[in-house]
Design brief:
The chain is an alpha/beta fold. The protein has one domain: Nucleotidyltransferase, domain 5, CATH 3.30.420. Helix content is 37%, strand content 19%. It has a five-stranded mixed sheet, sandwiched between helices. Helix 5 crosses helix 6. The longest helix is centred in the C-terminal third of the chain and has 19 residues.
Length: 187
Amino acid sequence: MKHEFVWVDLETTGLLDYSPSGCYGDGKILEWAIILADDGPIGNMTPVVQETGVITYNEQLNLDDYTLKLHTESGLLSSTGLSLKDSENIIIEILRKNYGSELKNLTLAGNTVHFDLQWIRRNMLELTKLIGYRIFDVSTIQRMMESWYPGYKRVKKEIHRALPDILESLENAKQCRELLKFESIGI
């Protein structure tokens, strides 16, 4: 089975580190999730491979009050895990195992995935080499649906954990695909 997209979500030390120039100061990736799904033209968007991990740091994290509350309530800050490099190696191994010789120019997918891509580019340089320039941003499709299709309402559960969030992205994409009914126009 060919996976069209690499579904990814990251939890980070916050949005305040983000700037349009892509500079993130001392921001950190706290958790990651990756899913490869049955997401081809006739696929049902079911996860085929999924993995998640928490990244542990030896130094004190710099979190604003909102982010501290958010990640404390979700249980993320009480979790322990792997180093950033070990996490990157696990992700690359999953991709290598599932893409083989086609392991290049991969398309990341998820909600507001451009944000995740910027963090990956800054913190996971080996993984960055495997990612192409295209992304599939589900939140953009949802925004289009809200604007063009009266009655469409996106649902966001606000869990703020990487795996539940990326599973939600898959469900959002599946819902949009069903509502758009591409097969009815011969695509």
